[in-house]
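yo, Acetyl-CoA acetyltransferase is done. seq:
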Amino acid sequence: MTSKRGSVAVVGAAESDLGRVADHMTPIDLMAQAVQRALVDCGLRLQDVDGLFTATSQVRMAPLALAEYLGIRPSYFDGTNIGGSSFMSHLAHAHAAIEAGLCSVAVIAYGSTQRSVSRAAASPREYNAYETPYRPILPTSAYALSAARHMHLYGTTREQMAEVAVAARQWALMNPKAWEKEPLTIDDVLSARMISDPLTVRDCCLVTDGGGALVLVSAEKARDLDVTPIYVLGHGETLSHASISSMEDLTVTGAAQSGPQAFAMAGVTPADMDVTILYDAFTITPILFLEDLGYCPKGEGGRFVSGGAIAPGGSLALNTNGGGLSYCHPGMYGMLGMIEAVQQLRGRSGKRQVDGARMALAHGNGGVLSSQCTVIFGTADTV
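structure:
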């Protein structure tokens, strides 16, 4: 991408209903709900929207369905679906489209009813001739392979992975919208029902309904709106494989490429981030991403998260909404991670607000560690 740092801004951000939504609601209902809320957030109207970006596992042609539902005919649209990181990818594409004059008000939207209809119905598994005969519990078994390999190579422990879940729960307890409402201990994680060794059910993300939307405009247009714009400083995206059996190294993800791209574009480093939002479908993923994004050396992720370092009051404000482990995980989580990053920079995060937050990173993961996309946001004084 050759987009210019800070040339576009997020001016609207909103979640749809979350958790277990009303009966008979569809993914498109949730997308439309989030879009309306995000537009109200920035004082724009549906008639202003001329760029539409969306994906979901439950609707085959999501941009068509959402445009029809909203009654709009966007001049630019994108239905790229690379799993949970799709929305970070959409943001990068929207950035380029706005700069190129292909649209002026871009909306990125997501919705899922995977809790209401069941995960199997929402995200049916494709047959894989090389893996399906072994009857893996996907996607969990794929991430379990990565966790086991990391433990073998670097001495990472189950207790260290459990720290990720415990910290997420502590953040979630300060978030009134979070699904989980009870405290969690390391022993609770370790003694929970085993899903795919070494991952217990508490090492795995939630299964919820939900969605969200972002509204992006040029930096120039943002100045004409009565909002606090949050600027896009950098982004990077990469694909590495589709099947876990084709992953070159089970402990090195594409974040090792997308992260440096984003940091180079933004002209900053991990040390500059006040808030970090990492896709936490499983407790191993933040550990991998902290390493690959450059927050700590490869193999040190387990030790890095230990001792409450990523919990409230720790040295790194990580997954401050409670993450996919304790806040909400409607199948493809990346949208909600970006919303949290934006709201933290706007100072709208209530009890979990990080004081003086000026820069935030949101990282998305898709498939079985297959796609990795990184976005860096900043307040006006960082541009």
